[in-house]
Fold:
Amino acid sequence: MLIPRLLRRLLSRPLTDPAPRPTAPEIISELRARLEEASHTRLGRSLSIRQVDAGSCNGCELEINALQNVAHDLERFGLRFVASPRHADILLVTGPLTRNMAEALTRARAATPEPCWVVALGDCAVDGGVFRGSYAVLGGVEAALPVDLVIPGCPPTPEQILEGLLALMDANA
Amino acid sequence: MNPRAILESGMEMGCRPWPRFMLDAARWQALAPGEELSLLGLWGEVGFAHAAFLDEARMEVLLASVPAHDGRVPALSPRWPSAALFERALADLWAITAEGGTDARPFLDHGRWPLLGPLSGRATPQPPGVTPMEFLPAIGEGVHIIPVGPIHAGVIEPGHFRFHIQGEIIVRLEVRLGYTHKGTLSLIQGKPPRAAARFAARLSGDSTVAHSLAFARAAEAALGVEVPPRAFALRAAMLELERLHNHLNDLGFIANDAAFAVIHARCGWLREGLLRAIAAAFGHRLMMDRVLPGAVAQDIAAIPGLLVALAQVAAELPGLLAQYESHASLQDRVLGTGVMTAALVQQFAPGGVVGRAAGRGFDARLLTGELAPEALILQSSADVDARWRQRHAEALQSIEFLQALLPALPDSGLSVTLPPQGGEGVALVEGFRGECLAWMRLDGGGVIEACMLRDPSWLHWPLLEAAVIGNIVADFPIINKSINGSYSGVDL
Structure:
């Protein structure tokens, strides 16, 4: 029973419809414009952040983590931390840029889709901070990547970090 | 000859308050564990290697040194396995080879610094090209590798974890650190203690008070000065506040790694209240740069607010313990997970929560009389659960200390003048992670000639590698969090 049915199917036309003809380019560009508008309305106030420690003392990480506690509740502003740079809109970089982390940081940036904003968080990320001039430190984040926003402090308080991130969101809304 | 007698047969080098003995290579070679002599740390200086030991019977620190002829010293790692990591750093930073050591691979040096042996006094240019690190192998049917990091999925410090896995079970883990190496020791050298204190404060941000205090005490010991009573008491208060806010953090994050959000949320809230009260009292949420050699930077303000925050934590901690104990889903994740064997705990002699959760009765506050021996809290099961409970009990104890200390602060000045003179000092301070060691030698002008800051995590990372063996990969985060080693503290 089975074999004749298989043969029939093999020799007959597939049930699936053929693919549609290519759409006219003008329709595509119109759709693209509409999509951009819609995504801006829907996603414009939502940014995903990938944090990268490029050599910090972990003080900045403590305050970034505090940003996620119930008192600050970062997510209510549409800001959330993601596990992969591939899901990120913002690279939030802390620490003086150590020579041992420079490659990892530039690779994380390469893995982040455009548009991407780089935020240097903490005095060390701004210009190397107290570690500037060490044989093991290249300087601030700018030594490897163009920086869009700087949030100084040692470490900046959660309120200061939040202020900086919200300003970035407003500037790009 | 017992090891203590070998040490004391060397020439005394005038370190305070604990002595440092200069040994020849033969006597250094003859040092072996025994008589409850555990290794605290090993580091270098131009022309010498230094080691710190703890005499657990007498509760005393002993330092030993050996000259590095042609950049070589006999290794300690065949007798003290915990020396292996230090010996790798000794080669990377001071270009001193530990002959006969168990592991000669680079550790902090990833081949990316411009110099080889940056602290050796005869640094040579690093040859171009980066050699990938060789990881220890695991052989067997179906073994595969999971490389993780240096950038991890969460908001944490960078490090590379190389897992060898069979099915779901971890066969071997190797941790590669050094990513946050900032050249801290090189920046400290050549500065007077006051100017160099900011580097001790930033060795590991979460232990900023503990490392600053160890650094300050070592400088004060070297110069033979003591801070006034109020400064002494304020330092003790800051140390306990740091322990408390970090223990709250860890209690929450361990529960979070078992997806138990309630405890994480409550601990985060309690810690935030405490940090705000600390900021009002000391002007900085983490109390960074508040402990300086010979001083505290500012007097305390807003004590009532601190006491209110402490009372809130004290009121809620018992309820959190009840929640922790009464949820099978959480207990299932922590009980029997990440166990450290008694043999390894004895060999590595880890300090802090990790050691005390495994029944090792050591706390650096015992050395200075800040903690009475009968007040020492211990657990025995050496698993994630024991480490959670240890933190919970210590948090309550810290609150008790603070509630007694804060209303009764002595009146006095806050600083003492540091004479610009030479000397050598060592200090051991119990941070939230364990004992932070600081050693320094000042030249005749009061400038730091040689220095070491040894974070307790040096002894914890190898034990993490051992504790995860036989556990499932999915339990790694919770085991790691329960130990909570500092990356930056070890990376220097």
Notes: The longest strand of chain B covers residues 37-45.
